[in-house]
Design brief:
mainly alpha; disordered N terminus; disordered C terminus; single chain
Length: 118
Amino acid sequence: MDGPTSEVVMEGGDVPRAAAASDATPPDRLGLELAQLRHSRGMIGQALASSVGISQSTISKIENGLLRPSPADVDRIARTLQAPPDLVRHLVDLAERLQSTAAGPAAARPGWRRAGRA
């Protein structure tokens, strides 16, 4: 396999399918894959949040592509959901790529978040 695809086979032969996952932006794609994994394990967001040690709101934001989680958080979430090692690596790799792309523009434009604020 050359790289990650929109389908990842999990234990038990389950294949998570995101609606248009290949068209999703990387944060959305990571969030969709984590949400599908959680759903396949029959776990609600609050239970996952408690197990991982982060808020349910943070889990929701990650799953909806509104928050870019750290690779360490993704690793903890995936392991808590008993993802197979290949899937854990794939998800952590997505998080690492998101982290590196997020750092690029911000680093190039110091203070960009303050622009337009009073």
